[in-house]
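Service request form, structural biology core

Requester: graduate student, group of Dr. S.
Request type: structure prediction, single chain
Budget code: on file
Notes: please return the result as structure tokens.

Sequence provided:
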Amino acid sequence: MKRSFLVQSVAFFLLAVMLLSSTGIQTAQAQAVYQADLTLSDLGMVSPQTLSSPVSEVVLHFNLPTDWVPQGIVSLDVELSAFFSSLVAAESGSTVSGLVGGDFSVFLNDTLVGVTTLQESGLQTVHFEFDTGLFMTAKRDTVNDLRLRWDGSISCQSNLLSSVNVSPASKIGFWYEKSTAALSLNDFPVPFMVENAIYPVPLKIVLPSTPTAGELKAAMIIATGIGQIAGENTSVELITLSELNPSESQLQNIILVATSDTLTTVSPASLGIQDGLQTGEGDGVLNIFQQKGGVGLLVSGDEAGIVKAAQAVSADQVIAAGDERTMYISSVNPVADSTGLEDMTLEDMGVGEMVFTQPNETSQSFNFYVPAGNQVRADASFSLILSHSQQLDYLRSGLQMKVNGYPAVSLRLTDNTSNEALFTLILPSNLIHVGRNTIEFEADIYTRDLCTPATANIAWLRVSSNSLLHLPLESAIGGSMLPKNFTDFPDSFLAGSGLNNVVLEVSPGDFANIQAAAKLAIALGSAMPDHNLIQMAALFSDDPEAADTGDKSVILVGKPSDFPTLTQHFPSLVFNEDNTLSESSVLELVTKPETGADTGYLAVRGFDAATSKVLLAVLGNTSKGVGLAVDALTSQMAGENNFLVVVGADEQIGWMDTGIATGKIVSPVAESTEVVQTVDPVQVFRIGMLKWVVPALVVLLALTVFFLYLEIRQSIRKTK
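Core staff response, request fulfilled:
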């Protein structure tokens, strides 16, 4: 009996353990598996998309978070509204349904995941399922393509018009696990910058509270590089090392900019940075590490080395050998400018073939750059080699070229232009300027048969990669003042190689000024071609080198009192001790901010064409005022002005000022001077006349009145 009881107890215990273990496993699994409830809006569809017959499609580009591992089956519910209507007007005016329809297809990464036939007009939801294995993991140069296609060619052939309107609220869901990806610098810029990410992970640049000259320059180069790689809309925040508080609950990636000396004052191990990162004199180092809540990138070295490391990041020249987590940099290689040759093909510029296959108007563009001190000759041209389908409707199809947004050439298409036709297009030299320039092609391609099926592939137009840009340059004529306004930012600063023509001066003592400068750096980078090594100079305004910038363009960021050269650059601007604009400034003060209000000031001027030098002042009476000025400039709200006063997001006023444009005081402040009386002969004569003419007239009038009195009195006596 006792034995039986003992056996039962042991069996019960083992069963309990198994149950608890099973429960524990299920709990662990439940905690490790998450559900993704997304919409097409999350994947990049910002507004409803209308797909019309005969054939049209929309493509969404996206990347999933780097730590997601999708599992199982994807469920896609597309909410759409279908419409079928007769080409011949019906007496009732009602839509036509149930006769013939069209096919709605979904492709993921060029794999057909489903197709359904629609025959009824109105709101409806179509369901698709496919394996999560079709998703691509976010890596360097990878992106997922979700293609939604409508083929209504059958309806069209039956004299029916058809279309579907796809809602951004359409749902896509699946399960995923989270995992820590293998850390490798060879995946850079992933995970710090992920193209078309559905949930961008916040990125923070971390600096010491009082950065050294090398740390400041490195941080500005990295900010510029981030703009160059990821664009201006990237969410980047600059914080101090003391503000960094890594947490598992706060998802963020960081780029830590700190010299070797700075690292000795903190505990690298507490941040997840490996020990033993030794660099030689003048060398930099990059190290990717796992931190709480995300991934970190250390940019370090001595004062010279940290700048090299930052330049490697900015140009996307991060390639690790051996240890994929660490890269040592002894030198950096500048990337050749996209302009340097007089003749460059689209292949030379990395553009390649331009192919247009969509029936609606589509556009493709490329950039070229004119270096400082040069201007384009009048014989600049673009030799366009064009091919297209002969089944196009030539009355509706065509190709237009724009130069910097301005229409330059419109081409008619014929059968004679269908096969490698050569067009020599003149580039208006007045539309081309120093720095970045853009050539854009807009194509309209329509077939003669409105009901061409999707599989026909007969609507196309191709610009050959052998098309040649002829860009002859000559020295710019110096001495002529180049007026600038805020719409020229940032293009007017892109005249050099990798911004080697730019000096960024930052007011010291206030970290907020460094944060403001970083925003400007990101905006500068966003306008540059990819993989340019950033060579911009960045320094504090009290640095002795700030006094002499030569022919380089200068950007001042901070409080006016911190820039001894401000008056030299902008003689018209005079500021009070509290950094507010003085009424003694040689400006027509259109508005006067309230006393104590946070106020930003923007001013820009250009120099002669030979240097392409530009001066930009981004100022404020407070740190918030500086931020207001930065926001007004980067948001393009500053407009076609060269001076702007900003007191709030919606409170700003600007104008063009001649004194700022020329750098001269055109209306000097009146000085107190002794007034010297001058002798006017005419005036002396007039005064002399008044001295005797007036008394004489009075006497004459008195005598006239007296004689008149006597005459009247005598007449009265005779009457009596």
